[in-house]
Amino acid sequence: MSIPREAYQTLQSIVGPEWVSDDPAICEADRYCSLSSPSDEQRRPGCSIEPASTEEVQAIVKVANRYKIPYVCTSTFYSAGTYARKDDSILIDLKRMNEIEIDEKNLYAIVGPGVAFSALQADLLKRGLITFVPGCGGNSSVLANTVNMGDAPIGWRYGLGYQRLLGVEWVLPDGEMLKMGSLSMSDDYFWGEGPGPDLRGLLRGCAGHQSRLGIVTKIGVKIFPFVSEELEPMGWAFHSFMKLPPNRFKWYNIRFYSREDAINAMFEIGRSEIGLVVMTVPPIFRSVARTRGVGCGGFWEAWKENGPKIKPNQEDLRVLLYGIGSDKRLEYEEKVLLDIVKDFGGSPREAPCRDETNFMAADAICANVVGGRFSSEVSYESINQAVRYSRVVNEITEKYKPRILEDYGTTNWVCPYELGYIAKMECLRMSSVENRDALDKWHDDVHKFCATGGGSTIFPEDEIFGPVWGNYPEKEAKIRALFDPNHVSAPQ
Amino acid sequence: MLKVEEYKHQAETCVRCSYCKFVDLNWVKSSRFSRQCPIDTRYRFNLYSAHGLLHSALAELSGKLEFTPKLMDALWHCTLCGGCDTKCKRNLDVEVLQVIETLRCRCVEQGKGPLPEHKMLADNVKSSHNIYGADPKERLNWLPPDIKPAKKADILYFVGDPMSYRWPELAQATAKILGKAGAKFMVLEDEWSSGHELFATGQLAPAKEMADHNTKAIKDSGAKTVITSDAECYKTLKVDYPKIMEKSTEDMPYTVLHITEYIDQLMQDGKFKFNRRVPMKVTYHDPCNLGRLAEPWYHWEPKYEPPNIAVGKTWRRGEKGVYEPPRNILKGIRGLELIEMERIWDNAWCCGYGGGVGTAFPDFALWTAGERIEEAITTGAEAIVSSCPHCKDILGRAADANNTGIKVYDITEVMLRAIR
Amino acid sequence: MQIKQALTKIVGAENVSDDPEALLSYSKDCSLSTPRAPNYVARPKNTDEVQKVVKLANESRIPVVPCSSGIHFYGNTIPNLGGIMLDLGRMNRILEFDLYNKMVRVEPGVTWGQLQSEAPKHKMMGLGPLLPHPLKSVLTSHLEREPMLIPKFEYAGSMVTIEAVLPDGEVFRTGSACVPGFPDKSLAEGVNPGGPGYLSYNWLLQGAQGTMGVVTWAKVKLAPRPKIDKTFFIPFEQLEDAAQLVYNVQRRMIGEECLILNSVNLAAILTKKWPQDYDNLRRILAPWTVILVSGGGWRRPEERIEYEEDGLREAANELHIPELPTSLPSLPGIERDLPGMLRNAWPEKKTYWKFASQGACQDVFFYTTLNRASEFVSVMSQVAAENGYCIDDIGFYVQPMEYGRSCHFECNFPYNPGNPDDVAMIYNLHAEAAEAAIDMGGYFSRPYGVVADMVYDRAASYTTALKKVKQLFDPNNIMSPGRLCF
Question: Domain ranges in chain A?
Answer without folding.
Answer: 5-93, 100-225, 232-364, 372-459
